[in-house]
Write a structure and sequence with these properties.
The protein is an all-beta fold. The chain has one domain (2-71). The protein is 0% helix and 65% strand. A 6-stranded antiparallel β-sheet has the order 1-2-3-4-5-6, with no helix packed on it. It is globular. It starts with a strand and ends with a strand. The structure holds zinc ion.
Length: 74
Amino acid sequence: MNANGSFKSQQAPCGRVVDGELYEDHDDEVIVTQETIYACGCQSIQHEYHDGSVSKRIVRHDGTVLVDEMLSAE
Ligand SMILES: [Zn+2]
């Protein structure tokens, strides 16, 4: 996965304001993977599939899954 940039002073899912990095990846199974890694350890991962559906998963730095959803293509 390639680092796609970094950011500073963004609010992480846990509420802390931290720095972080963005990653973006493309492959055959999943069209686009976008991952945000916050300095505190929180993660946000989004996958976009061929049929247009999108899955989103947000995991707090202590391992608690805050969001785990699949949005189907309309
Ligand atoms: Zn956090």
